Amino acid sequence: MTIREWIRDREISGFPTFSVDDVRSAFTNYSEQSIKNDLFRLSSQGILYPVYRGFYVIMPPHYAAKRMIPPIYYIDQLMAYLNKPYYISLLSAAEILGAAHQRPQKFSVMTVFPKSTVSSAKNDSLVWEYRKEIPSDFLLSRNSETGTILYSNSELTAIDIVQYEQYIGGLSRAATILEELTENLDFHGVSDSLLDYTSIATIQRLGYMLEDVLGQTEIADVLYTELRSYAKRFRYVPLNTRKTVENAEKNSRWKVYINSIIETDEI
């Protein structure tokens, strides 16, 4: 059996991904150079799609024309290969949740430290963010073409797009996405279980945006109650961490220096 035939058998058996180690185990009589040459040739022919160092996806026919496979097709298998917990995050999670006003150009994945040593040049479709822990209680799952994927729920997504707003285009874009998520936001009873995974400052900024920018007073009131239960006292923080707070107005409820103008897009 050749490596090409082995790949075809995997595809027929419903295993659309594999690693170099899998090939080595199946072809113990092949030299390392022979394996590399075969995988390189098959990738050049569009039969394989290398998505990470030592990890390949077998090109499905419906993606062959573009010779590009969306990460949602293989992300669960890739993270299992890396032996890391993960969830689809930020704009990619928001799109799955129905907030598809602006389709993200990159696919965001949240995982844990240490950071990847593989440059984005190896796969510029993926954007990695990192946490110390993955808040698994606030993840949702759904079926994909190749199995199951994990993504952040509405509450965690709302927190993430404020905490990591610099990765999605700034606070105005975060507010636009938040506006689309508000229909499903419910912060009742999340104080310890979710707020442990973020900063008090992030919740202050989120609360201010929900209440004063988006006019979502009911959602903001619930979040404020949970925040006060979690942290009896909190300090003033800048709305935009990259701008000075000099001469900025203050929001006394959320203790936020309003040092940036937020404008949402028309939905």
Across the major sheet, the strand order is: 1-3-2
Give the tally of β-strands: 11
Classification by helices and strands: alpha+beta
Task: Classify the helix fraction into a percent range.
Answer: 25-40%
**First-to-last CA distance:** 55 Å
Q: Characterize the largest beta sheet: strand count, sense, and whether it forms a barrel.
A: 3 strands, antiparallel
Give me the Rg, rounded: 22 Å
Query: How many helix segments?
Result: 10
Shape call:
elongated
Tell me the number of structural domains: 2
Molecular structure report:
- The protein has 267 residues and is of the alpha+beta class.
- The chain has helices at 3-12, 20-26, 32-44, 75-82, 90-96, 154-163, 171-181, 191-195, 200-213, 217-230, and strands spanning 17-19, 48-52, 55-58, 86-88, 107-112, 126-131, 139-144, 147-152, 237-238, 249-251, 256-258.
- It has a three-stranded antiparallel beta sheet. It has a three-stranded mixed beta sheet with strand order 4-5-6.
- The chain is elongated and about 70 Å long.
Break the fold down into its secondary structure elements and pairings.
Elements: H1 3-12, E1 17-19, H2 20-26, H3 32-44, E2 48-52, E3 55-58, H4 75-82, E4 86-88, H5 90-96, E5 107-112, E6 126-131, E7 139-144, E8 147-152, H6 154-163, H7 171-181, H8 191-195, H9 200-213, H10 217-230, E9 237-238, E10 249-251, E11 256-258
Parallel strand pairs: 5-6, 9-11
Antiparallel strand pairs: 1-3, 2-3, 4-5, 7-8, 10-11
Main attributes?
single chain; 267 residues; alpha+beta; Arc Repressor Mutant, subunit A; 2 domains; 3-stranded antiparallel sheet; 3-stranded mixed sheet; 10 helices; 11 strands; 37% helix; elongated; AbiEi antitoxin C-terminal domain-containing protein; AbiEi_C
